[in-house]
Amino acid sequence: MNKRGSADKIKLSSFDDLFGTQEASTGTEQVQEIPLCELHEFRGHPFKVLDDEKMQELVESITTNGVLTPVLVRPLGMDTYEMISGHRRMHAAKLAGLEKIPTIIREMTDDEAVICMVDANVQREELLPSEKAFAYKMKMEAMKRQGSRGDLTSCQNGTKFRADAAMAEQIGESARSIQRYIRLTELIPDLLDYVDKKRLQFTVAVDISYIDKEIQTWLFEYIKENGTVKAVQVAALRTALEVGTMTQAKMISILVNSQPGRKQEQKITLSEKKLRNFFSDKYTAEDMESVILELLDQWKRGEITV
């Protein structure tokens, strides 16, 4: 569709014809040319709109052919609309210099808008773990609020409504997998960014999400210095956290000593009572240690035998 100043309206048979989603509408809906200045991003939407190669391709397509698929919005007030589906198209249209964009306007409640926004975006290819994490969390919370209503609290067989099971069926992902993605929202931003960049393994990140935010900050610094952290190291850290307090130095010691393939350090303790059989009282602890190390060094060089 090319740039036009008029608010032309085009009859459509259904929303499915445009978006191919399960959000079917009743009757017919109209496409209107809405000024871009009246459209606003969905508040808190988790999907990143990047100025990458794919965005440039979209801009070139819109410049040549216009916006072929209308965006979906809901009205917020006088000449103000919230974007539900079409954030990338809206951004590309602005870059292409368009002033208006073909739009479907639909009345929705807050929870309906969240669910529709997530459903319209979550099937995209190459979604980042962080995008899935916050999208799943937003939809889960919206479904739980809907499920708390009297007409949704139980299924037909009388069992209690479970948002995770219903969501799993809709998205095509297991309820456990959805819950694990949602756990990622408990990570500090730096660690979540490492998950997106594949510097931190997904399952390890889920385990870290149960750890206090301050210690997560220490973990980020450790990963930044050492490249990564393994599941066995995080398991050792979580075990230590269950039995006592933690300092950054203690955490580093735990992570270093629990590295896969690393031989545990052995501690040898000699009591002062035993050592006094060989040293007079004039020898301090430092003096005794110095003599012992010197003798061991001579033994290593073969200068003395035992």
Key traits:
six-stranded mixed sheet; 48% helix; 306 residues; single chain; 10% strand; alpha/beta; disordered N terminus; Conserved hypothetical protein from pyrococcus furiosus pfu- 392566-001, ParB domain; 14 helices; 6 strands
Number of strands: 6
Which ranges are low-confidence, i.e. pLDDT below 50, for 5 or more consecutive residues?
A: 1-27, 149-159
CATH C-level of the domain at 10-109: Alpha Beta
Shape, per Cα inertia axes: elongated
Major sheet details: 6 strands, mixed
Could you report the average pLDDT, rounded to the nearest whole number?
A: 83
Rounded to the nearest angstrom, the distance between the terminal CA atoms is: 93 Å
Q: What is the chain-wise order of helices and strands?
A: EHEEHEEHEHHHHHHHHHHH
CATH topology value of the domain at 10-109:
Conserved hypothetical protein from pyrococcus furiosus pfu- 392566-001, ParB domain
How many helices? The count is 14
Radius of gyration over all CA atoms, rounded:
31 Å
Side-by-side strand order of the widest sheet = 1-2-6-4-5-3
Helix content: 40-55%
What amount of the residues lies in strands? 5-15%
Please, what is the CATH homologous superfamily of the domain at 10-109?
Conserved hypothetical protein from pyrococcus furiosus pfu- 392566-001, ParB domain
Helix/strand/pairing category: alpha/beta
Second CATH tier, the architecture of the domain at 10-109? Alpha-Beta Complex
